[in-house]
Amino acid sequence: MPNEQETERPRTRIQQRNRDLILEAALEVFSTHGFRGATLDQIAIEAGLSKPNLLYYFASKEAIHNELLSGLMDTWLDPMRAMDSNGEPIDEILAYVDRKLEMSRMYPRESRLFANEIVQGAPRILDALKGELKQLVDEKVAVIRDWTSQGKIASVHPYHLIFSIWSLTQHYADFDVQVRAVLGEEEPFDAAPVYLREVFLKILTP
């Protein structure tokens, strides 16, 4: 947590800049080494700050990690929130696929940070997964079931449809090294959007 001195008055530009440097450095370190493998020394070096300076802003490695995860959750849920129950069903789901894939392209480190947390049993975000995430997924599952009952999309298991979208889009971020090793010089995100749209179009078409 920020110390009392920070919470009692607004941050200066230098303080905000240093916090941003720390969080950016921590994102790089955590996404590369995982929570357990990351150290405050690594984060301080990556940020170009001394360890005591870093500890002025964040009391512990856990505090930095929690700050990153807190901000990430909203970012992670936004693509699903944008799925419009009043839109054309197949178009809405394919647009969700597009948004999730674009997040993997734009935010690979954030994706790996999230994946590392899940693999470790989500000790720091389990409440959010069972609360905010589940509530939103349940809401969209009800929408998908309604579209299915109206014959607007094929009969699919809505939860597993969402899981499939997550796994097929986030794979490109979480397994980036493997994907690029196999593809060689081909850019993964050149063909992935068309391929995934074709896959889900076949699944969803009545």
UniProtKB/TrEMBL annotation:
The keyword Acetylation does not apply. InterPro entries: Homeodomain-like_sf (IPR009057), HTH-type_TetR-like_transc_reg (IPR050109), HTH_TetR (IPR001647), Tet_transcr_reg_TetR-rel_C_sf (IPR036271), Tscrpt_reg_YcdC_C (IPR013573). Signal peptide: none annotated. The keyword DNA-binding applies. GO terms for biological process: negative regulation of DNA-templated transcription. It comes from the Bacteria. Residues 39-58 bind DNA. Keywords: DNA-binding. This is TetR family transcriptional regulator. It comes from Litoreibacter meonggei. The lineage of its organism: Bacteria, Pseudomonadati, Pseudomonadota, Alphaproteobacteria, Rhodobacterales.
